[in-house]
Amino acid sequence: MSTKKAHNQTEIIVTGFGGQGIILAGRILGMAASLVDKKESTLVQAYGPESRGGACNAQVIISDTPIHYPYVNTPKILVAMSQAGYDKFAPFLTPESILLVDQDLVNPEDAVCDSFAIPATRMAENLGNKMMANIIMIGFCTAITGAISADAAQATISTSVPKGTEEKNIKAYSKGYDYGRSTLKGREKRAAGQTGVMA
Q1: pLDDT per residue over 51-80, tens digit each?
Q2: Is 56 helix (H, G, I), strand (E, B) or coil?
Q3: Which residues make Cβ contacts (< 8 Å) with residue 170, sequence separation at least 6?
Q4: What domains does the chain contain, in order, with CATH numbers?
Q5: Spatial distance between the Cα atoms of 184 and 74, rounded to a whole number of angstroms
Q6: Percent of the chain with pLDDT over 70
Q7: 172 with 24: CB under 8 angstroms?
Q8: What separation in angstroms does the CA of 175 have from each of 15, 53, 75, 122?
Q9: Positive or negative CA dihedral for 150, 180, 112, 193?
Q10: What is the mean pLDDT of the chain?
Q11: Residue 95 CB: number of other CB atoms within 10 A?
């Protein structure tokens, strides 16, 4: 194996409040990386004093090489699904970080890095289940950051969600993924100063 990518490590924090499926989102990211993409991954989860409604976060590290320390100090990717979660971890962001937020729940004022927003909870409500906002966010994160492959994400979601809900969850994932792809396309278009339709 080539050692060129030796310290290619992606540190991710997913944060929000209890009941949003934050820990599940972290678990899916970590499992997709290790079981399907065949990388090393770790998951550390933290809850506030009360599980539902309290602050919680999942810290995921994905690496090409063994991981010696499972805690995230400087997130490369911060996925924030609550204002309190964003406020807690925003100070650790660097200009190289990528910030993903639920635009109806988080106002990332003065973010030091590139930020991307998606109305994940609203989209989940439109699909008939607010609880799928975390899955929509995984799709969005996969499209924007490429931290895990799309195949790995879908395969892991299928085995991680309650039986009988696989199809709905894959649909939610696809909505988030497509939204992410079109967000990136829109940015590319603006950067190129094009107003015409891109192929």
Answers
A1: 556 789 999 999 999 999 999 989 999 999
A2: strand
A3: 154, 157, 158
A4: 9-183 (3.40.920.10)
A5: 24
A6: 90
A7: no
A8: 21, 26, 25, 12
A9: positive
A10: 91
A11: 8
